[in-house]
Backbone:
């Protein structure tokens, strides 16, 4: 099986630093080398709660999309995520599969619509892979970010890298 580039969005608004650091360690242990975007802080969308920290990671895999989705759910559960919570509630950890190579698959929601709907997904994706071509829209992620209405959702880069301290 050929190696696939995978992109996943990560968010947390409960014990953010602990959960994100732990998630990245799990991803690195399971998939090997991962590329990590800068982390952004944003207000929750469609809910009340603390601000989120969001980022995007890239890794390579030979696993199937089903295996990847299963592993991402397993990591969420490990960090206290409960799938039976009402939608739009605070999250210990939310990991969304954004892209699986150039696959277009409605069953798996790939590519995930969040890429073009939310600044806290599109901007970190653009940071790590500006020349990536969106498989449906057929434009570079950097062009999509240029066109994005940034007045809809404010995001702020974290002033310090939470991954560097302890």
Residues:
């Amino acid at each position: 099986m050929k190696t696939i580039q995978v992109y996943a969005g990560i968010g947390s608004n409960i014990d953010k630093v602990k959960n994100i650091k732990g998630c990245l360690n799990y991803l690195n242990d399971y998939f090997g080398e991962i590329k990590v975007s800068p982390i952004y802080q944003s207000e929750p969308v469609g809910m009340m709660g603390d601000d989120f920290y969001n980022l995007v990671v890239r890794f390579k895999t030979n696993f199937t999309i089903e295996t990847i989705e299963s592993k991402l759910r397993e990591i969420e559960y490990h960090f206290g995520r409960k799938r039976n919570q009402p939608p739009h509630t605070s999250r210990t950890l939310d990991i969304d599969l954004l892209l699986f190579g150039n696959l277009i698959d409605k069953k798996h929601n790939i590519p995930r619509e969040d890429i073009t709907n939310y600044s806290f997904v599109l901007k970190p994706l653009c940071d790590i892979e500006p020349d990536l071509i969106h498989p449906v829209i057929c434009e570079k992620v950097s062009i999509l970010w240029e066109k994005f209405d940034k007045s809809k959702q404010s995001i702020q880069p974290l002033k310090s890298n939470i991954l560097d301290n302890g």
About this structure: The longest helix spans residues 16-31. The two ends are 38 Å apart (CA to CA). The chain has a mean pLDDT of 91. The chain is about 30% helix and 20% strand.
